[in-house]
Amino acid sequence: MIKFLTQITRIIFWEPCTSPHKSDFFSAVAKLSPNIEVICCADSELQLDRKAQGWSIKPTEGVHTLIALNATEIDALVREQVASTLHIFSGIRWVPSIVAGLKSVRKHGAKFSIMSEPRVAEGWKGKLRFVQSWLTESWLRKHTEFVLAQGRNGPPWFTSAGYSVERVFPFAYFIDPPKQKNELDSVIEKDKLTIQIGYVGRLVKSKGVFDVVTAISKLGRDAHLSIVGSGPEGQTLKSYCANLQIDAKFLGVLPISEVGQFMQDIDVLVLASTTKDGWGVVVSEALMSGTAVIATTCVGASIMLDNQLFGLCVPAEAPGDIAHAINKLHAMGAFTKANRMQRATMARQCLSAESGAQHLLDIIQWRFADAKRPAPFYKIGDVI
Questions:
Q1: What's the rounded Cα separation, in Å, for the pair 181 and 235?
Q2: If the chain, 384 residues long, is cut into consecutive pieces of 10 residues, what is the mean pLDDT of each piece?
Q3: What pLDDT score does 145 carry?
Q4: Distance of CA 77 to the CA centre of its chain
Q5: What is the per-residue pLDDT for 1?
Q6: Is 282:302 a contact under the CB 8 Å cutoff?
Q7: Where are the alpha helices (DSSP H) in 48-191?
């Protein structure tokens, strides 16, 4: 529990849909600030494809969830307690309830902030999005209290689109640590001749999974690849592995209840995306399980890898660099039990739902209570 000194007594999170990961975060905000009412206003329920993976929304302690409000209900919600409510919008476009919420916030002069991934910037469509942001977001730039810009690529996008550097904060998807059968300190360390490598994501070339396979062919040591996910190029990928004689196991889409154990069973997770994305929750799950990560700078969560305890960054479309990074981590002893335990401990200090909630509350204190500006979440415990 924190001593909260601002005039904010209610926080409303505006979401496209409900999510177990966001629910963890919202619940942590409510737990740390019992004097603040926490509401999640979602446009829709949990997506069907997530339900098929075993995802579910557990009762969120301390959080009142509202689903698919109409425009009249949204306006009434915003109109209540205008002076003491902070609205946090996960995006600003396309989602009906978010668009309506922003309209009402503007109408009533309510306080708001933005929590968002960067827009897709690649290609000519990316250039159009950039121009659109400059032309249509003037009011948002002027009035937002702060921007929670997710991942490595979030802050550069928002500052390049004209948002004040002072009000843009790096942010992440903060989640509860994944569940595993055994605590890491009770796992017996074994001498491993074969490096266990994991990939989790869509089976398409833009996610770099083919580069991961190519990298393993260049390792010069025994390695086993476990691939989690599905996608239109899955069969092509299987053929590619066979052609390169790569020891690979295709696990399909894992239920969320099994992801934690999968992470604990591998030595290193590799994400080799070739287009910029927002975060990559699997990176958080891997690091909090003690597993090292290699990722391209296109992966939002690669910001964590600036600390080599967590892993290494590589350029996109560079299989040779991935192979070198795997060998370097092995030589550094990154896969030992001691390093895994240290990695898991530090990752939980930065990436857990509770740490993320504390970071948000620190930002609110900075904005409304003249507190010191908090350092980036991955430098938890510092101030700047």
A1: 32
A2: 68 90 91 94 75 55 90 96 96 94 97 92 85 93 97 94 96 89 62 87 95 96 95 96 94 88 95 90 95 96 95 96 97 94 94 95 93 88 43
A3: 97
A4: 28
A5: 46
A6: no
A7: 48-52, 71-79, 96-108, 123-136, 138-143, 154-160
Whether 309 contacts 343, CB under 8 Å = yes
Phi, psi torsion values for 156, nearest 5 degrees:
-60, -35
Q: Supply the pLDDT for residue 294.
A: 98
Cα–Cα distance measured from residue 327 to residue 221, given in angstroms and rounded to the nearest whole number:
9
The half-sphere exposure of 244 on its side-chain side, counting CA atoms within 13 A, is 21
Token pair in block for residue 309:
């305890």
Instruction: Please say whether the beta carbons of 166 and 190 come within 8 A.
Output: no
pLDDT at residue 21, rounded to an integer? 76
Residue 225: C-alpha distances to residues 148, 208, 234, 251, 278 (Å): 35, 14, 14, 11, 25
Here the tokens at position 66 are 């509202």
Q: Both tokens of residue 197?
A: 């490598």
φ, ψ at 122 (rounded to 5°): -75, 150
Q: Are strands 168-171 and 195-200 parallel, antiparallel or unpaired?
A: unpaired
**For the chain, counts of helices (H) and of strands (E):** 14, 13
Instruction: Map residue 166 onto helix, strand or coil.
Output: helix
Distance between CA atoms of residues 141 and 143, nearest Å = 6
Contact call for residues 17 and 47 (beta carbons, < 8 A): yes
SS3 readout for 270-331: EECCCCCCCCCHHHHHHHHCCCEEEEECCCHHHHHHHCCCCEEEECCCCHHHHHHHHHHHHH
